[in-house]
Amino acid sequence: MISAWTKIEPNKNCYRYYAIWFEADFFDPFRVCCEWGRVGAKKHQRRVLVFQSWEEAHQYFKEMEELRLKRGYRTAIYENSSGEKSSHHIPMQHYS
Fold this sequence. Notes:
Helix content is 18%, strand content 40%. The protein has one helix at residues 54-70, and strands at residues 2-9, 14-23, 31-38, 45-50, 74-75, 78-79, 85-86. The protein has one domain: WGR domain (q64v53_bacfr protein fold). It is built from one helix and seven strands; from the N terminus they run ββββαβββ. It is of the alpha+beta class and 96 residues long. The longest helix is centred in the middle third of the chain and has 17 residues, at 54-70.
């Protein structure tokens, strides 16, 4: 599950994005990854948080969603290679 938002305010030179998703590996099954930065920039920030339970990870995920909306971000919409539009996922390579 990936959630992504953008905050575009040209009059303030503000072109930001924020994405958050769940990730798992053999050692840390409850990881939440966050990535943010300027739309179109080659560099961005990334943070990986490890939680002890699915409930804790999900709670953090929901809190970040609420915070992004409170700060004026909007759900990101992109068009994939087949021309379909989606509002739940932004391909990360789009920003690199």
